[in-house]
Amino acid sequence: MRILVVGSLGYIGSETFLQLTQDFSVTGIDIRDGTSYQSLSREMVATFDSVIWLAGHSSVKSSEEDPIGALKNNLSDLYEFALKIPQNSKFICASSASVYGNSAPNISEETDNLPPSINIYDRTKKWFEELIPDLHSQPYMLRFGTVSGWSPRMRRDLIVNAMTLDALDSGVVKVRNGSRYRSVLGIGDLISAIRTILLEDVPSGTYNVASQSGSIDEIGSRVAAKLGAQVSRSGESDSGSGGYSFRLSTQKLESLTSWRPTLTIEDIVSSIKDRV
Fold first, then answer.
1. 8 A C-beta contact, residue 74 and residue 63
2. Residue 152 in contact with residue 12, Cβ under 8 Å?
């Protein structure tokens, strides 16, 4: 199986690329090494059995700082790229659980009616999810929980990453918006879900992917306990990612495949602590 990973030098893409090369023939492209997915020819893309797109504006902050770029990268450029992918190739595309907005404490399922978007990042994800089934016959739109865990290209801003690195740096886990909920996705479980879709006969569609859920206060307390750190709690905010509160059901993916999440919050903390 020949696989193209688009965004292979990003936070998710760099670890995904490394792990998939153990079992597959994988080609990675990334704007950081001078190759844009927008420049790929239809003939080149057609040489791959599966395409994994992880190259979007990947946060609320980056999208709000560059809204035109986010619209192009997450929507119009991705639209044009999807047209180049053969219909018999699997197209795995990163979406986000942020499309559920402030839906907790209810548990969100893929069939739920989505709330109005609260920022440009969410809009691009929702719009492309609506468009892609008309463009490609085998799309897999993965609504990732908040991804955390070790990667060769670490991001400090993601919830468990930030808590863990703060605890290691200062002995204090900082908790803000503690009453809100998050579904956390360990990067190992994310890659396992992608691997499962590549190898199994999985119906195309939209899938939630997450490892564990809890209130931000609970997550912070578990990180602190794992590292022997203190917890510092501050107030609530609706700005940036503070407006989100979601808990994901992964029953759909589990019922249709052999995939099961295996990583705990503590496992994710260990994956970072053991590598920094």
1. yes
2. no
Give the pLDDT of residue 162.
97
Read off the pLDDT of residues 219-249 as tens digits, 9 standing for 90 and up.
Answer: 999 999 999 999 999 877 665 556 799 999 9
Q: Is 195 exposed, middle or buried (0-12, 13-18, 19+ CB in 10 A)?
A: middle
Can you give the pTM of this predicted structure?
Answer: 0.94
> CA separation (Å) from 51 to 175, 213, 239?
37, 29, 34
Angle between helices 216-227 and 265-273 (to 10 degrees): 50
DSSP character at residue 191: H
Provide the token pair at 7.
Answer: 């965004």
Residue 178 has pLDDT above 90, yes or no: yes
Q: In whole angstroms, what is the distance from residue 92 CA to residue 79 CA? A: 14
Cα angle for residues 130, 135, 137 (degrees, 5° grid): 100
Would you say how long the chain is, in residues? 276
* HSE-up (13 A, CA, CB side) for residue 134: 7
Q: What is the DSSP letter of 111?
A: T
Query: Two tokens at 185?
Result: 């996705």
- Residue type at 256 in one-letter notation: L
The CATH classification of domain 2-273, taken from the options 3.30.300.20, 3.40.50.2300, 3.30.70.260, 3.40.50.720: 3.40.50.720
CA atoms within 13 A on the CB side of 180: 21
pLDDT at residue 156 greater than cutoff 80 = yes
Q: Which two tokens stand for residue 263?
A: 């990583």
Structure confidence by residue, pLDDT tens digits, 126-138? 999 999 888 888 9
pLDDT score at 238: 62
